[in-house]
Amino acid sequence: MDLAEFRSKYQLNTLPELEQPNLIRDIEYPLRQAAVLIAIHEIDNELQLILTKRPTHLRAHPGQISFPGGKVEQTDNSYQATALREAEEEIGLLQSNVEVIGALPPHKTFTGFEITPYVAIVKNAFTPVIDPGEVDEYFTVPLSFLLKQDNRHSQKFSRKGIRYPVHFIPYQQHFIWGATAAMIDLLCRQLNNNSYN
């Protein structure tokens, strides 16, 4: 899949037809708003998804794999502005080098966040500049790997008597799971135009 096909499939395949069992609906406490950037970068003629590993000293989700992004600040004009600002701060991806083409539905987490993911294309090659206070590691995963359904897994876990699916994606030495894996799964289902069975 090249960038033109990615853009076309993303825009033509609509999400309302897809079930989203990964969304948590029964959270009673107020949710903190956050936004992330699902950035697609073409490297050596192959589409790659940008991911980061969070440092272990962070209070929220230490050591986990995530998209560039974070909590919405009062100075942000929109959730999209949050995702773009955070990507620039965390990995040095300039906002002028990003084309946002859409968003996935907000994803609620058990840790008290509602995360809005923005799907974007990196326009030109860039050299990541990592903020060590926010990011422990920067890496990319080929979109072709993620699109293969056999590489994306889900297992049900019980919480307060309700069973919820938890998504996970092993890739090389990385273990992508939770909200990040769920959002990747939803994006891949949209691109493949299929739904949950």
Automatic annotation (TrEMBL):
<keyword id="KW-0460">Magnesium</keyword>
<protein>
    <submittedName>
        <fullName>Coenzyme A pyrophosphatase</fullName>
    </submittedName>
</protein>
<keyword id="KW-0464">Manganese</keyword>
<keyword id="KW-0479">Metal-binding</keyword>
<dbReference type="InterPro" id="IPR000086">
    <property type="entry name" value="NUDIX_hydrolase_dom"/>
</dbReference>
<keyword id="KW-0378">Hydrolase</keyword>
<dbReference type="InterPro" id="IPR015797">
    <property type="entry name" value="NUDIX_hydrolase-like_dom_sf"/>
</dbReference>
<dbReference type="Pfam" id="PF00293">
    <property type="entry name" value="NUDIX"/>
</dbReference>
<feature type="domain" description="Nudix hydrolase">
    <location>
        <begin position="30"/>
        <end position="163"/>
    </location>
</feature>
<dbReference type="InterPro" id="IPR045121">
    <property type="entry name" value="CoAse"/>
</dbReference>
